[in-house]
Amino acid sequence: MARIVSGRIDISKILAEVSDPAAGGTVVFIGTVRNHDQGKEVKELEYDAYTRMAEAKLREIEATARKRWPIEEISIVHRKGRLRVGEVSVVVAVSAGHRAEAFEASRFAIESLKRTVPIWKKGSTPQGKTDWLKGSRIERLKVTTRGRTRGSGQLRRSSHDSSA
Fold it and tell me: Residue 145: which residues within 8 A CB-CB, separation 6 or more?
């Protein structure tokens, strides 16, 4: 259920996709276009992606999450095209037997997406100026896998973090 879409992301459809009677918890992360980036006002963003490769990477993230946590379902959807401030750009939904696994798998999925999936964004200011924006770079990420800790340190974002 990992995909790149050109139209509006239907959050209720994604929630239905991950719904499972064995799930005691469902986590939904919704990323939206914000009105600023690195101190500059943003009117809209244009997302572009190498769709085939991006969807392959999203499927890898999904498969890794399924291996690391006892999750029931996962859906990762990213939009491409022109989005205005407030519009939904990405949704990650995870259902699991327990909330901890749902939260951990969801965070892993969005951070991995930001770090590895070939999606680019160009910001437009109210004055009409456009520029490619830097994405989020994760330096270290601590994740727990079925009671075991992997990785080292806490999540740290670089000073050029500019994404939801």
Answer: 68, 69
Looking at residue 9, which CATH number applies to its domain? Answer: 3.90.1170.40
Closest by Cα among 157, 3, 13, 146 to 77: 3
Range of the structural domain that residue 136 is part of = 2-150
Query: Is residue 159 assigned to a domain?
Result: no
Does pTM surpass 0.90? Answer: no
pLDDT-based confidence at residue 132 (cuts at 50, 70, 90): confident
The candidate with the shortest Cα–Cα distance to 147, out of 62, 69, 67, is 69
Q: Is residue 155 part of a domain?
A: no
